[in-house]
Amino acid sequence: MEKKKILFVCLGNICRSPSAEAVFKGLIEKEGLQEYFIVDSAGITDYHAGGPADARMQRHATKRGYNLTSISRPVDPITDFRVFDMIIGMDNQNIRDLEQLAAGTNAATKIFKMTDFCNHCHYEEVPDPYYGGDEGFELVLDLLESACRGLLNFLKNQK
Fold it and tell me: How many structural domains are present in the chain?
C-alpha cells in the first residue's frame, strides 16, 4: 500500500476532526498499518488555534479508548492542499468552505465528505456536537468509527 496523507477537517478542530484523527489512528494501529499513513486534523476557522480538543469530546473519546492529543490549527490552503492526498470534511458547510479554499486549483479533487465512507449510516454529515449534550458526542464517535472503517477499506481496495 502506498503511503497516504489524510487531513480531517471540521469547523474549529476541537470536536469532530480531532476525533476522526484519533479514531483513524487507533484503527490503523490495531491493524499494524501506521507506517502507511500520515494523519492530521485542522479547522476551517482559527478560533481555537493552539488549544486542545474540547474537554467533553475528550471525555467521551477516552471512554472508547481514544486519546485526543492533537492541538487545534486552521487549514493552511497552500500547504495542506499540496501535502495531503485526502482532505475530509465533516459536514456540507466544511465541504463548501474547503472547495472555496481550493478554488482555481485541482486540489478540489482531494476533498471528500466523512459520511461518504460510512457503512450503514443514516446521516448525510457528521453533526457538530458542540452546543448539544452527551448524546451528540456519542453520535459523532459512532459515525466516525463507521466512517473510518469504511475509509480504511476504501484505501485498502485502491492499492
Answer: 1
